[in-house]
Design brief:
Elements (H helix, E strand, L loop, with lengths): L1 H20 L8 E7 L3 E12 L2 E10 L3 E11 L5 E14 L5 E5 L11 E7 L13 E6 L1
Antiparallel strand pairs: 1-8, 2-3, 3-6, 4-5, 4-7, 7-8
């Protein structure tokens, strides 16, 4: 009975974060130095502005091993390098198989008046890992 409560609470938190973070990120630009500490290849990264603070991050992911879960976190910076927003759950997927190409689109909304100059794209292999960037299995910075 206790496990059902924990599972229910976890599901409610996931749904709440997904609804809260809505759409994510950015304006078109090019990828600046990607680094990968995993068996995950990320290519064709594109940041597209949708207007009114809404952005989409598009990419192709090719895992070289099976993952039970993947999620994308976006961290936005202004031109001075200050963090202006963070989208903790811009995209996620379960049960990814090795060699299975994924065309992904992460979405988010920037709520402040500041214009983003750069976005860090981080991919994690565990739920709600965005608080500790050192656990990212992929990280790339895109200058807008």
């Amino acid at each position: 009975m206790k496990n059902k409560g924990i599972i229910t609470l976890t599901l409610l938190l996931v749904v709440g974060v997904v609804l809260f973070s809505g759409c994510t990120d950015s304006g078109s630009s090019t990828e600046a130095g990607a680094e990968s500490r995993s068996n995950l290849k990320v290519s064709d990264v594109e940041v597209v502005s949708e207007g009114y603070g809404m952005y989409k991050i598009k990419a192709t992911i090719m895992p070289e091993k099976d993952y039970s879960y993947l999620e994308m976190v976006l961290i936005w910076y202004d031109d001075s390098g200050a963090v202006i927003d963070k989208n903790p759950l811009a995209w996620n997927i379960n049960d990814v198989k090795s060699g299975q190409a994924l065309k992904i689109t992460g979405t988010g909304i920037l709520t402040g008046d500041e214009a983003p100059a750069k976005v860090d794209i981080l991919i994690f292999d565990s739920v709600f890992s965005g608080g500790d960037e050192s656990g990212a299995i992929y990280k790339s910075s895109v200058t807008l």
